């Protein structure tokens, strides 16, 4: 014990000194409204070109869900100057890698190249925006592909539908109530014109941010960016939708049966504020407190000591407009879902009524610092963060300052935020069960 | 308006000023970037632990990686012992109790984890000395307790349960088991049974034998200088006792003797997992190692691989199709080409994957494909250098795999020297379509019928069946689920009961049924007359008799107009089996019907009875609940051709105390005809003349 104490005091002295590995960047706008962020780092000969569009499943018509993600697929089908089927070849034959992701709020495309192919990356991304070819062949092929993606990621996946089940109950007005992959029926009935309209509406430079990160010279990069993206005409303003949800009257109890599982799962979901709110950061810390690491409260109690759970989790899935705070676990053996819920609720109640210990608080700070250092460890990762912070937080410099927000969070705030959002009567209780076979 | 015009002019002006770039062609790459291939600093402890240090000051953090490079271990009837050991490592040490230990790791904001022959830790550089100490302590002085053992065992078993319905987990398990055999470390199966065989003593023994420094490497990467690292590592790891792990022997895995499909039935699957696999004997130091990688890359290495372009981009069968080739200096390993595909196209996907493998072995790849793939490798090589782990990995590979010291220095040059012929030779040597094992895990009731018809290169590909643990099994029976004790006669008796009871049914000596409907614009009438041993069926079109069938005694003939045409002997024999006022009476008497199972008919469970025959095979379906017959189907096979017929029987109504279906729908090929009951006449109006 004495040894531990001595060790602790040593830590107190040394903590607080962190190397500020500042991510330097420059940002500006093109005349057509496209936002540009440059992060130069000439240590290693790699470069990332990325474009993020402020369109996700949130911007979809409730009758046409899955469009944003589907569109991401379509935009690999070719452009005026890049033939169908050539996109991937062009990237890999120049030593690069590429992909794209769609979420509720944005769609992100990127290429990573050895640095001598910066211009190629800029050309490709500008072609994608300026000259996409959206035709029936592409739509037909990608309809099949997306169906398989859904089967792979959702329908055939153990626990693959928790998000769908949780979010449709957490949200009644906001488009977060449907999933990013959307409805296969909607996609099946979608016409070519629907997709062309989607393109016109959202894929405009004034709705996008271009990030170039890595090994390049700024002057040259700026000239090329102007050459490739400058001529793209500005589009109509994109207005982001706003929805205000009424508080959940609950708890809402839901059951879902999944044929792909054997072990049931209990999951409680709470609606929380959007990711830019300070409270969202506090909720991140609460998740760490509850379930990150072997000494975290829920893990230690439910998995380690009481052996009631195979696994426990708590995380704050925040989005631009709202978040979903999810906490739950998988029971071991005969333990009931109710018992797991009871134990979790007990811990949350403590959090809402008592202050966490100084030691636990310091642990949270150390973890936050560690995450912060690790979050900027690759050029590709930095590019993604810069795009996100600009597009969804409206503050690119958060890449350097986010740690200050965590540092400023107090124990009292942790208690108050837990009390404010993690209310048992304002949550969804999802019992996610193995499918019952008919006994015949 | 003016504003718009101005804008247009401006944009025109701008466009002109950009005209210097040519958008129609991809920009050419600049000169190849210089790469800097560092080497780690190394030293060795007396106990055999080899240490590598890669100094990288970009971020204030350090990672520590322990890699014990032992040959694979066969765990046999105690499979699971190594994963139990791994999950018990890192929970404290004999010096620091578990809770205190975990608390401290978390407090540092650090990560620490153990595998069966590895460990990993990372932390901010200011906590590196302590996390290194903790890691060494946990590795050298493990904290194996009975309590932890029981807990980890329960968790492992529960974990195995979670995989029982997981299609991809099962597919992976079975693929390995079939490729290597279950008596090989890479193929053996951990089950609840084998886990239950493991004792705490087994875990301790496994640790003592295998978790030893003779083949171990420790790699330190990050914000630390060599001298500090060396001092700290020497202090922390010198107490690790010198020992060499035992050597094991196990059966050498063999390829299938001929190309075959190995099918695992997963009734919950909405997609099939398809993997075409064969074994390869490939080591990194082999001369054709790089050509083999290139061949695999062209075949299925990514979004521009042939498999992806064919199965996803061209056909839309899958979200992705890829191949991979392993290398291993201890054992043959797998080459696999796989895809998750929708049920409908399972058979086609198998064929397409086989064809792509065949093509790359038989035809040279194009110069362009080779050029592009080389560029991909070069790019990947350059970009990987961003991560300091790469430097360490390269150095480790040189040591472990016995590569020339300059392997990575010459890597780009060696890639560049690969010819089209090298690639084809490697493909021929390492990819097989005549001894391939095609493992498919999917929903048999939807995919098997077509899968059984797959042929490749002119040969039928046989389907063999396996269970979820890779044991050979029978072809799945989709008609399972019959309650115990129920026989065909029970079903037939229940039917008789349901339509009016044996007494009333047996009192019938003749029956005339007339159904009427419309087909192709004509009125259709079907008249059927039956006695105990005679049957006459006449079909009228617009009131004109079109066709008739008569069966009596030992005669069976067809009537068309005034002509009588005898039907084949075999068909007659079949027909005699089913004579009677009600077919069921005959079947009860002759006992030829077999209960084949339960199937759904119009969404309701029905017993399926099969009546075998030489030409006509009849299936009859009876509602489980009501006992009434809901469907009749027949397969008629003549001269090597088969024809399917089936009819649905609906909306029973009572006539003179007997229930008859008031609607029948008859399908013959693509047509469907619905007829409704016009009359049912019992014990009247049937004479011998009706059977002439």
From TrEMBL, chain A:
**Which ranges carry the Peptidase M16 C-terminal domain?**
190-366
- The molecule here is called Peptidase M16 domain protein
| Similarity comment | Belongs to the peptidase M16 family.
Record GO biological process: proteolysis
Q: Which domain of life is it from?
A: Bacteria
**Signal sequence region:** 1-20
Entry-linked Gene3D superfamilies: Metalloenzyme, LuxS/M16 peptidase-like
The record's InterPro entries line, in alphabetical order, gives: Metalloenz_LuxS/M16 (IPR011249), Pept_M16_N (IPR011765), Peptidase_M16 (IPR050626), Peptidase_M16_C (IPR007863)
User: Pfam families under this entry?
Assistant: Peptidase_M16, Peptidase_M16_C
Origin species? Croceitalea dokdonensis DOKDO 023
Query: Does the record bear Zinc in its keywords?
Result: yes
**Single GO term (MF):** metal ion binding
Q: Keyword annotations for this protein?
A: Hydrolase, Metalloprotease, Protease, Signal, Zinc
Q: Where is the Peptidase M16 N-terminal domain?
A: 36-176
From TrEMBL, chain B:
The record's section on Pfam families has: Peptidase_M16, Peptidase_M16_C
List the Gene3D superfamilies.
Metalloenzyme, LuxS/M16 peptidase-like
Q: Which GO terms describe its molecular function?
A: metal ion binding
Tell me the keywords, alphabetical order: Signal
Q: Where is the Peptidase M16 C-terminal domain?
A: 198-376
**Cross-referenced InterPro entries, in alphabetical order?**
Metalloenz_LuxS/M16, MPP/UQCRC_Complex, Pept_M16_N, Peptidase_M16_C
Peptidase M16 N-terminal domain: residues covered: 52-160
| Keyword Metal-binding in record | no
Task: Give the range the annotation lists for the signal sequence.
Answer: 1-19
Its name, as the record gives it, is Insulinase-like:Peptidase M16, C-terminal
